[in-house]
Amino acid sequence: MAPHNDIVLFHYTYSPYARRVTWYLALRGIEYGQCLQPPTLPRQDLDALNVQYRRIPVMSIGRDIYCDTRLILEKLEERFPDGALGATQSDQKAIERLLEKWCIDGGVFNRASQLIPPEMPLLNDPKFKKDREDLSGRSWDKKKMLEMRPEAISHIRDTFVFLETGLLGDGRKWILDTEKPSLADIEAIWPFHWLTGMKGALPPSFISSTQYPKVFAWIDRFNKTVASTKSSAPKPTTLKGVDAVEFVTHAEFSEPEGGVVDDPLGLEKNQEVEVWPIDSGFKNHDRGVLSSLNAKEVAITTQTKVGGKDLRIHYPRTNFRIRAVKGDIASKL
Questions:
Q1: Is the pLDDT confidence value at 332 over 50?
Q2: Exposed e or buried b for every residue in 37-72, given b needs 16+ CB within 10 A?
């Protein structure tokens, strides 16, 4: 069965980043397909598509593959403009973007991940531990995690204060004082939703609904809204890996190829390049022919390992490195 809207979301259900996208799709009522992935490498379905990028989620629309939730959400906003969740006023757009950067680049999620309880069963799995060390570039040794925990609690407590007394301080239901959740709520809520749902992550003597009733009420309200929306919306079509790969390799491209604009990197269209993230998952590089490049996005054309079909992999420019495979120093970053 072909996925609705030609969308296949490659993810696993407890990924906090994937929830950003599944919440968005649910709140919008956008039908889609999903291909569930293991939480650790290898991921054979994505490897069959020759996607070396290792973070979850990855979204395909036809034969265009989109990496990083920032770009995925942006593409969904563009592709389904009627009823979009993004802000329209310039000041609200700024708040929305700042919240995205605050949680992803500003250290909120990094500190939140340091609050994973060391007694979690997954941390007894050497494969999981090694996978996350490769992903993050830091030790997941239980002793080191315990040493980092007090500082992480202090940092996360400060973020709760910011929400309680700042963005939610006047008693509003949603971040931008809207009637229903907006993209700004998704950009802000996901690390806190993840932490409050993880038993033992937050010490109640420092962070609980007693100290931060507005934040916890906001999270509960969001949970109920998403649950209500999901209950009345069509369920995503779940594809087996072989079927997802088959669909993507035989689909059409979902957007025009685009071009390469004048850029500080000095790269040219059809030049062979490598692309990889520099904040996490930086050991995994994708290689292909540069098909488009602008201030916000880069895309390369590569071939699937199964079927040998061309596909385009797209990445945001933020926290991604692009390097010419062959060329002079001026064309490298």
A1: no
A2: bebbbebebbebbbbbbbbbbbbbbbbbbbbbbbbb
- Alpha-carbon distance 213 to 72, whole Å? 32
pLDDT in tens, 258-310: 999 999 999 999 999 999 999 999 999 999 999 999 999 999 999 999 999 99
Amino acid at 147: E
d(CA 133, CA 280): 10
Q: What is the rounded (10 degree) CA torsion for 92, 93, 98, 99?
A: 70
Q: What is the pTM of this model?
A: 0.96
d(CA 63, CA 47): 15
Please name the residue that has the structure tokens 């190829």: 257
Which residue type, as a one-letter code, is found at position 270? Answer: N
User: What letter would DSSP give residue 331?
Assistant: G
* Element at 259 (helix H, strand E): none
Q: Which residues contact 101 (CB under 8 A, 6 or more apart)?
A: none
Query: Per-residue pLDDT tens for 113-160?
Result: 999 999 999 999 999 999 999 999 999 999 999 999 999 999 999 999
What Rg value do the Cα atoms of the chain yield, rounded?
20
| Long-range Cβ contacts of 121-129 (<8 Å, 24+ apart) | 127/40, 128/39, 128/40
Which among 175, 3, 6 is positioned nearest to 76, based on CA atoms? 6
* C-beta atoms surrounding 292 within 10 Å: 19
How does pLDDT run across 57-81, given as a tens digit for each residue? 999 999 999 999 999 999 999 999 9
CA atoms within 13 A of residue 34's CA, in its CB half-sphere? 20
CA distance 172 to 119: 37
The three-state (H, E, C) secondary structure of 1-48, written as one string: CCCHHHEEEEECCCCHHHHHHHHHHHHHCCCCEEEECCCCCCCHHHHH
